[in-house]
Amino acid sequence: MAKGKWEQFKKNFSKNFIDFLMIFAAEDQFINKHRHKSSVIKEQKRYGSDQRKNDE
Question: Compositional bias of type Basic and acidic residues: which residue ranges (predicted)?
Fold first, then answer.
């Protein structure tokens, strides 16, 4: 019986640990994906938007 509980614990722990890593990886991916966009917004606030794009 103890072996069965240990195997169940290892299975559950492994699943939970992988879920945690996937959440962490998704957060990291989200931050890196939007880093460029936020820097563009900061530049627009500092220097104003590029009017040449609207004149076309």
Answer: 40-56
